[in-house]
């Protein structure tokens, strides 16, 4: 049951196609600064995210008492999900994060990597807002702006790709970009990376993650707003 009228109790109420649903309130038994090896997936698919060694994020709590995973650019922090995923033509990704941009550098916050080459993957970036690299599309041709920098503040970033290639990006509840990106559908198995695989050092972030939700469905506008409101409420964001 949700604790506020109009807010869903779980993202899973919106669709049976969620393949990843990680929330920071599942992090227990840690003190600030402890490295976190795994992040529990609540989607029911067992797609838990993990990292090892210096790649591990650390447990942190913000000024309002909300837990988050702290990422450090110098350590190239990232988490990789357990399950390989066949990349769908339609997808919705909702992230709650904080990120500090340095000199307007590009930061990669989500990566669906094929393990083949940089042109066969879909990435969500800050500063450029979003970049979708699929089947030979040049990086510059798929750049969507304006910036979605959160400048150290918590923010909900939602990305939706529809079957025809229409991509929408929302910052909190506001649609900031909608664009049709021509692409050739790919079929591949690869895990998702919360963060970046690089190789550019400046793609890694200084900041943190509160929630990550991935649905293999292009959620409609009403469901998108419900997901955003849920994410914002759970992480103490007013929208």
Features:
1 helix; eight-stranded antiparallel sheet; globular; 36% strand; 239 residues; mainly beta; Jelly Rolls
Describe this structure in words.
About 3% of the residues have low confidence. The strands form three sheets. Strands 1, 4, 5, 8, 13, 14, 15 and 18 form an eight-stranded antiparallel sheet that branches. The two termini are 21 Å apart. The protein has 239 residues and is mainly beta. The protein has a single domain, classed as Sandwich (Jelly Rolls), CATH 2.60.120. The chain contains one helix and 18 strands.
Count the beta strands. Answer: 18
| Rg calculated over all Cα atoms | 16 Å
Oligomer: single chain
CATH topology: Jelly Rolls
Give me a quick take on this structure.
The chain has one helix spanning about 220-235, and strands at about 20-25, 40, 50, 60, 65-70, 80, 85, 90-100, 105-110, 120-125, 130-135, 145, 155-160, 165-170, 175-180, 190, 190-195, 205-215. With about 240 residues, it is mainly β. The longest helix is centred in the last third of the chain and has 14 residues, at about 220-235.
Give me the secondary-structure topology:
Elements lengths: L17 E6 L14 E2 L9 E2 L7 E4 L5 E5 L7 E3 L3 E2 L4 E10 L6 E6 L8 E6 L3 E4 L9 E2 L10 E7 L4 E6 L2 E7 L8 E2 L1 E3 L11 E10 L5 H14 L5
Antiparallel strand pairs: 1-18, 2-3, 3-6, 4-5, 5-18, 6-17, 7-16, 8-13, 8-18, 9-10, 9-17, 10-11, 11-12, 13-14, 14-15
């Amino acid at each position: 049951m949700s604790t506020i009228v109009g807010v869903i109790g779980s993202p899973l109420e919106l669709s049976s196609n969620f393949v990843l649903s990680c929330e920071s309130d599942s992090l227990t038994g840690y003190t600030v600064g402890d490295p976190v090896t795994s992040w529990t997936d609540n989607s029911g698919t067992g797609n838990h995210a993990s990292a090892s060694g210096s790649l591990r994020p650390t447990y942190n709590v913000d000024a309002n008492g909300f837990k988050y995973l702290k990422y450090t650019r110098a350590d190239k922090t990232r988490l990789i999900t357990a399950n390989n995923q066949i990349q769908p033509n339609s997808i919705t990704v909702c992230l709650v994060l904080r990120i500090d941009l340095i000199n307007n550098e590009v930061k990669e916050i989500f990566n669906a990597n094929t393990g083949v080459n940089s042109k066969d993957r879909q990435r969500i970036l800050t500063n450029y807002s979003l970049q979708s690299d699929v089947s030979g599309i040049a990086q510059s041709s798929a750049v969507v702006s304006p910036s979605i920098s959160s400048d150290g503040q918590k923010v909900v970033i939602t990305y939706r790709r529809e079957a025809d290639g229409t991509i929408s990006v929302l910052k909190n509840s506001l649609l900031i970009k909608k664009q049709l990106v021509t692409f050739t559908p790919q079929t591949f198995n690869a895990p998702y990376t919360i963060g970046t695989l690089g190789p550019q050092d400046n793609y890694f972030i200084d900041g943190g993650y509160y929630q990550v939700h991935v649905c293999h469905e292009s959620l409609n506008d009403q469901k998108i707003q419900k997901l955003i409101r849920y994410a914002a409420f759970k992480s103490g964001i007013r929208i």
